[in-house]
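Running co-folding for 1-deoxynojirimycin.
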Amino acid sequence: MEPKWWQKAVIYEIYTKSFKDSDGDGLGDLFGVIEKLPYLKELGIDCIWFTPIYPSPQVDNGYDVADYEDIEPAYGGMTAFKELLEKAHALGIRVVMDLVLNHSSDECRWFKESQSSRDDPKRDWYIWRSPREDGSEPNNWANKFNDGSGSAWTFDEKTGEYYLHNYAVKMPELNWESRGLREEVYRVIRGWLDMGVDGFRLDVITKLKKPPFVDSPKKPNPFGYVLDNEIQSCNPGLHEIIKELRENTWGLPQYDAFAVGEAGGVTEKNAEEFLSPKRGELETLYHFQIVSRNRPTVTLKAYKEIQDNWGQIFNRGSWTTEHLSNHDQARQVSRFGNDSSKYRKPSAKCLAMMTHVFPGTPFVYQGEEIGMTNVYFDSIDDYNDRYTLGDYAAAIRDGMTPEDALRKVRINSRDHARTPMQWDASENAGFTVPGARPWIKVNPNYREINVSSDRASSDSLFAFY
Ligand code: NOJ
């Protein structure tokens, strides 16, 4: 069978906020991306995946969506997006949007309505539960960001119930048991497809089906809550949700689109339940067996075994992806390679080759193509990542000194990947306009590691890619 376009594509992930700032507000934006489209074309990519660029209070850098049908004004709004889509398509570059369907922002109209009264028609679009008899949270689950009290539930005074948020307090979980919610989401997604979007990356898609709302038997943390990640993914009933989602959106015959699921809890053993073309669920996904925040690295032996295992699924018509880093992970050359001046380039090339020669669609994360590295800031104030801030606060509450807490939490901070793209050796790496201040500090090594210097060198990584 003739391969589909997304099976032949190289996908480049853009974290817009850190890519290129065109107007000097310190935030990357879509006009900045438009300016760099020729760069991306030259790099040879076929498709861009944008992490969420919808209007958002940015509690989790856009993964807290306030309006699923618009584009963040600070990124240039819908005008910039439409221009970008047209220009990218003219260059033969497709555009994939991030869909955050597990939770929204509490500033989303849907949540405000849901919160307005127990009888609101959108009440069941979110997960509301009564307090226990003593007034405490409905169960002992912790939120992943150690936000607020640490619980996954926040009490709403007005309506006297708790809502569920597995991430930040301001990120309430959507309820996929609700017919009304499902139909609205399908309508919204079709709107993006009709505009010409080529596909979607589905945020934490394996978590849409919730487990029973009972206490986790695992040992609570010092604050009395349990972070039990295992119970949240791949629950019975998930496949029905994904199948219906696809049938009503990108799977419709009028679109030539695809979806890549962020698939926590999926291994080669259950992957085909999602990927087999017979199932009509996901075209592809990415798993966490190699690249995971909970594991600093993998041995070469483990890497080989995992790749061998996943290789089997292709024989039966399924398809998967390859990546070694993204916006949630440390920089790949620092983590799996060696970022010393002697070995940075050769090891980055080796990792690039691994990603691109294995079967599956390769994903390149911005900056990887010039070997950008991890960063270690000396003050917690320079960090922005919710995990880093939450874990730091918890370490301090737990009695750790600020120095030790910082040393601990910066190891696997997601901010390693989120510092501004290093374009050249000028002030702030050429990310923003002269005199402006980037939303997060640039990596101090930008004078040596940047696009201009890489491309001028005889052993250019960019050229290797
Ligand atoms: C996965 C995203 O990649 C990450 O950045 C985000 O914090 C969580 N999902 C919550 O949306």
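Result summary
Residues 60, 63, 100, 167, 203-204, 262, 327-328 surround 1-deoxynojirimycin (CB under 6 Å).
The chain has a mean pLDDT of 97.
Job closed.
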